[in-house]
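in:
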């Protein structure tokens, strides 16, 4: 299976870096303090901006209360990097893109402190371009993050391949018009058939090029 693209957009958590333990530790502590079932929280939060989740679980709170809780969570998630590691194939793929001089960016729902902390903790190559929570007015699943990611690379979204693992991010990338590679796409996801390629690991992905039109070829063997 092949895709042609001029640029690549990567989600961070669950796509390039395994930060699940940190995310669940911090959000479960929030649940305990708020008297909310942690399982309900974990089911809701993945791929979404923290403020979206906080407003969902604190519907009666004032904006000041929500922002105070947001800063509390941000500090915990930015400073707790224990167990954060690169997912299989992530470092090799990013190094290959740098070797080929392929434009790429990280498009994350995390804030700058959280995103940079996890990128460093996972020893991932640092991107030249970031799209973080602070840069958008509407987070995933809205298409704005990936639209901005493509714009940052000075490319049309359809010229970009977006790598995502969570439903909110997959929908964001699809609605932006990107080609989408999903890592472990949820089986129950309503729009699963719209995903261009589904992989179990970034180790399955290889990249070559560019061709005479500036497109790089991304290849995933059919047998995985």
């Amino acid at each position: 299976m092949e895709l042609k693209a001029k640029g690549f957009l990567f989600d961070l958590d669950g796509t390039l870096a395994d930060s699940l333990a940190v995310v669940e530790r911090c959000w479960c502590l929030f649940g305990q303090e708020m008297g909310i079932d942690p399982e309900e929280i974990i089911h809701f939060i993945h791929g979404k901006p923290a403020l979206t989740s906080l407003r969902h679980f604190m519907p009666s709170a004032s904006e000041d209360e929500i922002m105070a809780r947001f800063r509390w969570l941000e500090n915990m998630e930015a400073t707790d990097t224990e167990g954060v590691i690169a997912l299989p194939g992530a470092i090799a793929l990013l190094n290959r893109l740098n070797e080929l001089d392929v434009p790429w960016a990280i498009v994350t729902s995390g804030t700058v402190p959280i995103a940079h902390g996890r990128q460093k903790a996972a020893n991932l190559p640092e991107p030249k371009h970031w799209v973080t929570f602070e840069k958008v007015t509407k987070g995933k699943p809205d298409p704005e993050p990936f639209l901005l990611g493509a714009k940052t690379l000075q490319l049309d979204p359809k010229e970009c391949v977006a790598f995502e693992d969570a439903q909110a991010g997959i929908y964001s990338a699809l609605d932006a018009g990107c080609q989408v590679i999903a890592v472990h796409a949820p089986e129950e996801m309503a729009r699963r058939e719209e995903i261009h390629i589904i992989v179990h690991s970034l180790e399955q992905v290889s990249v070559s090029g560019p061709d005479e039109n500036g497109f790089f070829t991304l290849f995933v063997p059919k047998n995985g």
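note: Residues 20-79 form one domain.
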